[in-house]
Amino acid sequence: MAERADGGEAILAACRDLGVEVIFSSPGSEWAPVWEALARQRRDGTPGPVYLDLMHETLAVGMAIGYTLVKGKPQLVLVHAGPGLLQGATGIHGALLTGVPMVIASAESTTYGEVPPDPGSQWYRNLSVVGGPQAMAAPFTKWATQVGDVSTLYGSVVRAAELARRGPAGPVYLNVPVEVLLQEWTPPRAARPVAEPGARVSPADELARAARRLVAAEKPLIITESAGRHPGGFEALVAFAEALAIPVVEPQSAVCGNFPRDHHLHRGGDAAKFAAEADLIVLVGCRAPWYPPSNRPQETEVLVLDDVPHRPYVDYQVLGADQYLEGDIAPTLRALTEAVREAGIDEVLVSGRESESRALVPAETAAPATDAIDAAQVVRCLRELLDPDAAVVDETITHSRVVQRELRADRPGRYSYVQGGLGQGLGVALGVKLADPGREVALVIGDGSLLYNPIVQALSASRAQGLPVLVVVFNNRQYLSMKLNHLRFYPGGAAVGEDDFRGVDLSDQPALAELVEPFGMTGLTVTDPGELKSVLAQALDTVRAGTTALVDVRVAR
To answer: Which residues form the Thiamine pyrophosphate enzyme TPP-binding domain (predicted)?
Structure first.
């Protein structure tokens, strides 16, 4: 039978022109046309994306998130119909919150076998969705639609990826019906490599007005959640803060490392404490700077610098800006720094803030000597043992502030926090490793968070793809966050009086270190503070030799 190009070839051609490097897939029967196009790609030696078969949708999406955090460009994720889309929804929503661009695709049937080609009876019996799977995807994606014909499939994939990259960056969804995938396709004459997005910076008069505010401020403060996610944002924020000696706070809502934690201008994570004393607050890439939202300092001016300050996917958001600078983070910070210099810096004010900041640098306190392992001790050991350029992915809950504080991330990409629902950490860490194989990658994760992950599928992918990572479990054998929230609402309730809590106990969990053994990986458990560093070093040696290792650390709290 003569070969003919169909929808599978259209998708692959779009991937090539977009520069998609990896197709992450938890396979479904609709994707046979893509698989056939991939087989032809390999047979003919045609350059194109690598395809990964993965065993769970959360894993596929998580790996795409991690990969894109490193590479910056959207990749393609293929899942199965409506059920596969829903399985991956937690990760897709996490990508939306994190601002990670990607294209998610699944299918439906539009003919149910009434006319050729026959898509299979499963689409009629089990997989049809009223309104189409794009209706399912709409609440947790940036944009969702159906592709109506093969003639628009190539252009729809290209448009989806371009939309995904524009601010606010995030996941987009395409429903590509089986019938469209099987239609004969004629490549468009206008196909060409897709251009990079252009940079956006506020006009000179707006920059000058913001510069005047900054020069006049006596106690300015920078609060940032995501500057480090933007290309060049980390370095541009350092240069801007240093030019005016402005203290920087990374609140609990920070999604990554944005500013060196060991810098004398870094003030930690308590935004409310310093905001109360500031006369100008600069919000750089912040979606939720105040909590509760009405807690904006009333007598303080607020300058907002963001690519899209008001996130359309956030149901309620209060920034309270006195001025906006809307544009790409790094170019806008650089332009604002130059505008400040042109406006004339008050060297006396800046010198005073500089001296004050250096005097406030706290000395690192020693961990308390106890018979139990303290979470801070774990992070300090990791900071000492890991390569300085290692990437640390964090899916802890009650220990996240400790991780952020004690890791002292000092460069871009050093620290990333997993956004959205739990269960994505293993996939994100593996995606980071796939994107940068020469980089050391560690996942710090709570025992409750780990048990939400597709553990078997992720460990299988780690072995199959040669992606060794270090997994460090902060194991307190409970869902402590559940207990803390119960205590918030009922501090003197019956559960406290009777020590009778629900949704908390994880004492019957399996031996976590043994979960990796069927995959030929190293699993270790440590309970003695005196042995912690040597056990972590042993596990890290295993990872450096090419095999994933999991350390079950029994922490005191």
So the answer is: 399-553
Whole-number Å distance between alpha carbons of 210 and 332:
11
Helix (H, G, I), strand (E, B) or coil at 84: helix
Residues paired with residue 470 on neighbouring β-strands, in sequence order: 442, 549
For residues 52 and 139, membership in a common domain is answered with yes
Confidence of residue 363 (pLDDT cuts 50, 70, 90): low
Residue 233 contacts residue 258 (beta carbons within 8 Å): yes
DSSP annotation of 492 reads: T
Task: Check whether the bond before 117 is cis (ω within 30° of 0).
Answer: yes
- Alpha carbon distance 436, 201 (integer Å): 30
List the structure tokens of 5: 């190009």
> What integer pLDDT is reported at residue 359 of this predicted model?
86
Q: Which strands make up the sheet holding 143-146, listed edge to edge? A: 50-53, 22-25, 76-78, 102-106, 171-175, 143-146
* Separation in Å, CA 111 to CA 123, 132, 137, 245, 356: 9, 13, 22, 65, 71
Residues 318 and 425 in one domain: no
Q: How far is it, in rounded angstroms, from Cα 264 to Cα 300?
A: 24
Query: Rounded to two decimals, what is the model's pTM?
Result: 0.96
Residue 98 and residue 232 in one domain: no
Pair 20, 157 in one domain: yes
**Are 407 and 531 in a shared domain?**
yes
Together in a domain, 394 and 340? no
- For residues 479 and 418, the model is more confident at 418
Measured CA to CA, the distance from residue 235 to residue 260 in angstroms comes to 10
Which of the 8 DSSP states describes residue 251? -
pLDDT tens digits for range 105-126: 999 999 999 999 999 999 999 8
Where among 182, 215, 235 does a domain terminate? 182
**How many Å apart are CA 467 and CA 425, to the nearest integer?**
14
Both structure tokens of 235? 């370095």
